[in-house]
Amino acid sequence: MRLSSALYSLCALTYVSSFTNNNNNLQLQTPSSFKTGLFSHQQKGNNKGDEKEKITKTYYNYNNEISTRRDAILSTTAKAISAVTASNYLIPDAYADTTTTADDIAGATTKIPTVQLGKSSSLIIPRTIQGQWQLSGGHGKYTIDSALSNMEAHYKAGMTALDTADIYGNSETIVGKFDKGDDVVTPLTKFCCFRFLDEIDRTEVRERINAQRQKLCVDKLPLVQFFWSNYDVKKYVDVALYLTELKEEGLIGEIGATNFDLIRLKELKEAGVPLVSHQVQLSALDQRPVQSGMADWCKENDISLLAFGTVCSGILSDQYLNKKDPPTNDKLNTASLRLYNKTVQRFGSWQLVQELLSTMNDIATQVKADGRSSDGDCNVSNIAQRYVLDTKGVDSIIIGVRNQNHILENVRTHSFTLKEEEREAIDNIVKKRKGPQGDVWDI
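Now predict its structure.
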């Protein structure tokens, strides 16, 4: 199945949910008309390789029933709609926790390193990026002030790039409020295409990009990451080239992709799309970008991998270590947890997950014993993040920003590296996995 359940849950949320934050009158409501799965922007903004894919494929829906690609997509959408409208999705005051103080951040000795996206790019970003999916809903109530406060705290810790998207509800608008024109603050957004794909033309691409520039309060979008939901509609190369034209005009700084498989990624590259990055789910529990050969190819072609889901919404953390059973449905109370719990199920048994957690915990204990981290501490999440950061082709990881509880922990990850034998120990567990199989977003 091509379509990401994460992205479709976001798309479904944009379509059908009406999430209201009473404190700031922040609303996500069903648009009266939409196209390509997004708001139809009414306002104007400022101012082929040898590899082939068989046409016919067999897909399985969540009930393991054989279906067409269309049926698989619609089944995923229905699940997503059900998930985001579940009553336990609105967790009171999810953004209110602020255990990290400004003094804590100022006193941190480790600084997050930066990296250049692709050798042809002028864009410099930190190796840990703020992820703003949580602002789209399904992660608890928040106020604009609390969201901005969280951005500020992470920014001060060195996470100066903020990842957002046109389908993340009001995320772009809120990020735009935080970005006051300081060049050091780098908003990274996405151009996502879901519906009426064969009707997308230059005019629509320009209007949508101008609307994103307006929301993010920038003349030039530093990075636009392109997503296409249905490979059966072959217009993705054309649309990517439309984005390239806007880059040449100066409306877009750099172009990336998100959640493409390797075959189509190569098509974009061969068509002359100047890709500098590709955002994918990657963790010890999900190795599809590695096993497909994508990581190697991206490294060879100077395309930086940006990895999300590195700790699987906290499943790869001390919190789940030595837990006899996996989280029950009543504990899966955020959109992230529901998504990554599916990844866990595909990976293998809960016993295998515990074996992975135990191995990571042993490594964290050794890091502490050796005094290798900046503050003398280390935990499972640090090891999980470091494992991905040290993966070939990966330049940055994206962390979900819901509160300020884990800022120093996320900074600490950059104060040490894994020894060869430590990485090998994790690899030996990962090799036992059942899945996820295939390429990026093939399940």
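Confidence is low (pLDDT under 50) at residues 3-98.
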